[in-house]
């Protein structure tokens, strides 16, 4: 009876193999199994490492080692040989063993680029794959290709090897090299009471990662391009790594997370709105319908620091007041200030958002992580974070193209410096800050080709003491002008626009400002007015919905032509000729006759970053991670 059943099972497996084989052949593809000896034909192997016996996923076994073996299997390891062959007899015997006592003996495999190729045990793998088994015991020998920095696959694999060497975690794969470093950072802070440090990675896999993977796959993770490791990294970013996974909590947020995962690697799905006209284009009937909306929209603002103590916060407060005036009676606003600039911001933002707000603006990049966490948990609220970073399905970003105003400020600095050296204080090397530095440096070079820009990372913003200390250091190195000098005293421009830092000349004897010369100006009210108008009209919802079930990531990134960014000039301190030049260049920026990042542009290593007459795209600028050739980062202590 069992023998007859086993025979029918083989015929069924063979039938499926032939269908798969014929389907691939009709598409001009090979219908046989991949062989590693063929894959390695032109590959330089740097070494091999025996890893011992481990449980591995059958889904990651993609081929056999020997070319001669590949012809007996279809692409998915099902048998192609005749049912009367010796091969078929052995396959059926293994099938019977699997059904009666289980396949226990480990197979032998080579691991190459995070996939497995069978050396011994091809038929065992075939039987287990027919039954959709999940894992098999295997002796693993790792083949390591020679490093090649031009091969993205090998670069990624070496990042995985570094991760493995520190953790000995075998079956966690990420799609980008930098993500391994990020996960290692989270794991370095991961501690479990009663568990030795050497055992914490094993505990992590058993109690956290594998339970997360089961839930992720349960919600359709296997249909996404995002690896389970990528998905977990986003979860860890929002929630940290728990000692053991709370399955009910993960299931509650997984539907929202899956929407984020669907676009995690798809940067081309990001809609960078560089023209405010795109949110102003409201169909006539949509515009009419909003007039009769009975519901008042409630808009909340989250501030770091207080309105009185921070120019940045004050500038956003001016925007909130503008919004109330513009939509009197239709928009109700509220704010919370002095929210901690650390992970505890999540509790404050969530409690604030739960008060029935329809829209919440968090006005600093330091709130990005807390904001997306709240947005995932409260998908009915529209969240916006003020930063130039990557947006999310549940959280859009808004920011200005400050590099345009920085470019003009740099021109002023280049024109006025007598030493040819200018200092620049910056928070940290994130893309938005680096784009501003580079634009400033380009403006300097345009006015003075031999000028140098000295940059120091401060790790914080809006701190007069820090920038004063740095001023003295810059002066010692020859600088006579400093950009981003935090204002020490209130000024008219501070009250009018919320300006908190400027380009200024420095008294070399004291390190204190002599003259405040220029500064980028934010007019957040225009941002808030246009974004809320687009929500009221339904335009924003249409922009984010995309097509079908796909959602778009939206980054509002407007420039000087919209009026959200401008440049304050101390006209009584600047030469008339300099003012004329800056105003002419500003007009060219506004009318798009000039793009600051037009090549040729070289970085600090002399590498050509932008070719002659080419322009950087919005995405290139938003992801900038290099500095211009006339920029020098200094160490304050030296």
From TrEMBL:
Signal peptide: none annotated. Keywords: Lipoprotein, Signal. InterPro entries: ABC-Purine-Binding, PnrA-like. Pfam families: Bmp. Residues 297-568 form the ABC transporter substrate-binding protein PnrA-like domain. This is Basic membrane lipoprotein Med (Substrate-binding protein (PBP1-ABC) superfamily). It comes from Fusibacter tunisiensis. The lineage of its organism: Bacteria, Bacillati, Bacillota, Clostridia, Eubacteriales.
